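wait is this the right file?? whatever heres the structure
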């Protein structure tokens, strides 16, 4: 069944190590959201975390392009990128988003739509994980 999914933690590690899974992800036709922190992003791009840290904007765009998924690069100044390279910066996100459980619930407001559309995608990585909420009332579009 093809349905929207949010992938975090070990799912990202599995994708990073399996070309067939990456190809499957790239060809999905429904909404897919990846929520890596810098180390997971580095594994997906096969670079060091320092490379991700040095250019977070291009890193999040590269992940979105290579996977076809909406990508939320967690951390201070969380970035959200589409495959089209359209990218948003959430100035309210903190480094705490790079901790276990923060990919469970994501909420952001798309001010660019003019309708202030709120979108929420949820996932449970383990039954015992606590849901963490990343609430951003304003996001700023950067780049194309």
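ok assuming it is, sequence goes like this
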């Amino acid at each position: 069944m093809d349905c929207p999914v949010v992938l975090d933690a070990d799912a990202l590690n599995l994708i990073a190590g399996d070309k067939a899974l990456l190809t499957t992800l790239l060809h999905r036709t429904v909404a897919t959201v990846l929520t890596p922190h810098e180390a997971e992003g580095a594994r997906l791009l096969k670079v060091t975390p320092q490379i991700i840290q040095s250019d977070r904007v291009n890193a999040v765009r590269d992940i979105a392009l290579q996977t076809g998924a909406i990508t939320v690069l967690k951390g201070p100044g969380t970035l959200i990128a589409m495959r089209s390279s359209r990218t948003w910066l959430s100035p309210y996100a903190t480094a705490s988003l790079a901790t276990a459980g923060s990919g469970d619930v994501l909420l952001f407001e798309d001010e660019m739509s003019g309708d202030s559309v709120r979108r929420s995608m949820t996932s449970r990585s383990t039954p015992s994980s606590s849901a963490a909420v990343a609430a951003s009332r304003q996001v700023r579009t950067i780049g194309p």
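The first helix runs from residue 10 to 16. so i think its the right one actually
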